[in-house]
Each structure stands twice: as C-alpha cells, then as structure tokens.
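Duplicate of #3305? Posting structure anyway:
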C-alpha cells in the first residue's frame, strides 16, 4: 500500500515512516523543512521526500495519508485530503493499529528525558538479547536508527503528551496502551495547546487509566504533579525511584558519571558511563525498573547502561577545534537547560563554559518559560541568546536578568563573531535548540578553524 506522510521530518513522523517501510509499504512524505538528522535517515531508507505542501504531491492519490500534528486547517495538502475524501489518520492512531497491537508496550512519558530514557530502555533490552522494537524521537547512537519493528513482543515507545492531530486533540500517548509505563517528571510545557499544568495532569491521568492492573507504573518520588496524577485514581502497581523510593542511587562522582544502584535496600552494582547530570541518573533508575518488569535483572541492566552511548543531539560532542569543544544539545525548557549545564559544569570543573540558546519551541515563543530562563544558565560563564525574528517577547529583558554575562544576537554571524572573540583553548561551547539552528554547529567549527 502507498502511504504518504505529511510532516514527515518531525522526529515522531520520521520514525513512523521507517516502521511503515519495514512493514513493506511504499512510503513517501513531505515537510515544510527537510533537514538532518531525520532527512538523512529517511533518504537512506529509500523514502522519497518532497519539500513543501503543494497538493500536487497527492496526485495520483496514495492509499492512506498520515497527517502530522504540526499541520492544521488551511494547509493546502490538508485541504486537498479533506476535499477529495482521501483516507487519513493521525500518526499515533496508525502506530497503535498497525504496530502496537498485541505487543508488550513499554512507554516513556514526561516533560523531560523521554528520548534519552526510551533510548536507554531499548538498549538495555537489546543488550539482554530481547531484540525490542522501538520508536524514539531521536537517533540513539547504539542503534543509529530511530525506529524498528523488532523481533519480539517487546516495543519501547517515546510517549509524548503533545496532541495527536488537528482532528484528534488527545495526547499521543493515550493511543499506546502500555503495559509498562515510566512517568519521568511533569512540568508545564506546550503552552500552545495546554492552558495550565492541571490540563496536562488530566492527560497523564488518561494514560494511567489505560494501563492494565497486571502492568507497572514507575515514577520518581520528587514530582508533586505526578503524585496528583496517581491520586486521581490508579489501578496498577507502582514502583518509585529516587529519595525515599524503592529504587535509589548513591552518587560516586558529583557529575553523575558513576553511581551505585539499589532496589528495596539491596545494592545491584555500579553504573559507569559517558553521560553526566542528575537528570540522566534519574533516567537510568527508571530504565532499570522498567527493564526488570520484563525480566532483565538489575545487574544485567547496569552492565548495559555502562555501554550506553546517549542520543544524537543530547550533549553530543560535534567538534573540537583549536582546543574549543562544541556540543549540540536539544534542551529547550529551563529545567533541561539547568540540569544539562550543571552536569557539564561538574565534569569540566573551572573550564570556561559558553551557552548559546535558541528559544525555538512553541512554549518558548509564547514566553511561557521566560521567567525561569535567567536562573537556568547560572552554571555557564556566559550566554548568547539568539533572537529569532518571530519571537513575541523581550529577550533582552530576560538576558539582563541573567546571573552571568548575557548578550542577545539576531544572526548566526553575530553568534559566531561573539564566540570567536571569547573562546580560547579549553572553552566548552554548548549550543541548545530543538531545531537545526541554521547549521550553526558546523559553521562555528569552520569559523574557529
């Protein structure tokens, strides 16, 4: 069957395309912006991509159109699908109907760390010989592909609370019906579709309602919003992680690169890995709990985590030029920015640290997170904020409140000039954005050469 995917370069929809292709379908797709790493992955899979949403791409008509949640009424391709009566479906619905039916689904939900934790969990199961299927909103370096069907009943899915499509305003994860669910954390985000935190909590409770009584829910003890979700009603056994929980850690290095894991008071071994930050330690604990639920003993999970390579664009070292190290990171929420910088600071000690941040997510553009931004960069020595032309609030006022030197740049050239003037051998530069940032990473590396 010929499936055409609208919005194919989004991390979720691109992964969906890979699965559809693996199921034997002919897959094509289009997007407003075709850029790596997803475009590269799709082209390598032999999936034909079209730039833009001209209706002509739907003639001759495909057998099914999968419509991404970035598309809305008024889009020429969407209007054509509706006017011609072409069969269409949301991405999460298609995934539920054609991939997840009859599988043991392990879902990873939460405001932060979904991609990294899903990648960890898929890798732990793989390492244990369980050959899981997975769909992850990023490219895990242990697999070099963001999705696959897998050879066993186990399927790991990154479970996003964002809405499913313009015609289905439920959170994506309501479609997945997991047996094992990680609820990693919960803060206000997605200000473009949720009015407040309570609205997101309600969607998380819709997820909780779908988890069987023979399943398992895993969540940290330190998240009041998740506690409220569970208190709305829970029919499933729960395991908790972190302070006072059944799963605990003892940090053996301040940066989180070594820690001992215990479950119900019994030590199971030490994780030593390349990752840093308390957030990743928390991700690891949840991963070990979920893996144990499907039969992976903690010591085996710990061995797997010690060989885990993280995800592309999650504190990924992309260049080292003239002694200056450049990292690419996806952080786009004050909490994620703060924990990422804190982990790196603990690893590098007193080395100069420059953060370059693009407020690109819908919540950022709406100014939903601006109050938390100044404090989030405390661990950097200086910050360069990028002001995109369509930002609807005063970024300069935010920069003025930062506890470290901060400037606002309105072009990539200005950012590069600033970094060049400030960086010396030993400087660490972290570029944070949830988009391609105009290829800044490569341009900066080239300029430093």
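Output from current build:
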């Amino acid at each position: 069957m010929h499936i055409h995917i609208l919005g194919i370069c989004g991390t979720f929809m691109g992964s969906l395309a890979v699965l559809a292709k693996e199921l034997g379908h002919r897959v094509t797709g289009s997007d407003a912006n075709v850029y790596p790493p997803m475009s590269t992955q799709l082209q390598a899979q032999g999936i034909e991509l079209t730039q833009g949403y001209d209706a002509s791409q739907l003639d001759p008509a495909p057998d099914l159109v999968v419509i991404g949640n970035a598309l809305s009424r008024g889009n020429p391709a969407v209007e054509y699908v509706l006017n011609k009566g072409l069969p269409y479906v949301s991405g999460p619905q298609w995934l539920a109907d054609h991939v997840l039916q009859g599988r043991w689904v392990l879902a990873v939900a939460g405001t932060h760390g979904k991609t990294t934790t899903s990648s960890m969990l898929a890798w732990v199961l793989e390492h244990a010989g369980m050959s899981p299927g997975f769909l992850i909103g990023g490219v895990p370096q242990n697999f070099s592909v963001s999705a696959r069907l897998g050879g066993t009943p186990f399927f790991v899915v990154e479970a996003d609370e964002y809405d499913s499509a313009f015609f289905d305003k439920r959170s994506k994860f309501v479609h997945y019906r997991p047996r094992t669910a990680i609820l990693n954390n919960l803060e206000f985000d997605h200000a473009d579709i949720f009015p407040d935190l309570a609205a997101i909590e309600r969607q998380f409770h819709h997820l909780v309602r779908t988890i069987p009584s023979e399943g398992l829910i895993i969540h940290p003890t330190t998240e009041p919003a998740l506690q409220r979700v569970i208190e709305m009603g829970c029919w499933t056994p729960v395991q908790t992680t972190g302070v006072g929980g059944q799963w605990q850690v003892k940090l053996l290095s301040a940066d989180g690169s070594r820690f001992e894991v215990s479950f119900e008071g019994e030590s199971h071994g030490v994780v030593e890995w390349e990752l840093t930050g308390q957030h990743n330690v928390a991700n690891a604990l949840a991963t070990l709990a979920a893996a144990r639920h499907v039969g992976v003993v903690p010591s085996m999970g710990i061995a797997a985590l010690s060989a885990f390579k993280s995800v592309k664009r999650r504190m990924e070292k992309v260049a080292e030029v003239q002694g200056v190290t450049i990292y690419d990171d996806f952080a786009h929420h004050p909490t994620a920015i703060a924990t990422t910088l804190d982990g790196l600071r603990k690893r590098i000690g007193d080395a100069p640290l420059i953060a370059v941040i693009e407020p690109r997510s819908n919540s950022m553009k709406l100014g939903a997170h601006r109050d938390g931004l100044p404090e989030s960069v405390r661990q950097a020595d200086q910050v360069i904020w990028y002001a995109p032309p369509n930002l609807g609030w005063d970024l300069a006022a935010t920069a003025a409140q930062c506890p470290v030197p901060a400037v606002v740049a309105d072009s990539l050239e200005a950012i590069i000039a600033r970094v060049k003037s400030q960086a010396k051998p030993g400087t660490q530069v972290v570029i944070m954005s949830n988009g391609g940032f105009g290829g800044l990473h490569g341009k900066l590396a080239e300029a430093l050469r």
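Confirmed duplicate; merging threads. The chain is about 35% helix and 25% strand. The longest strand covers residues 266-272.
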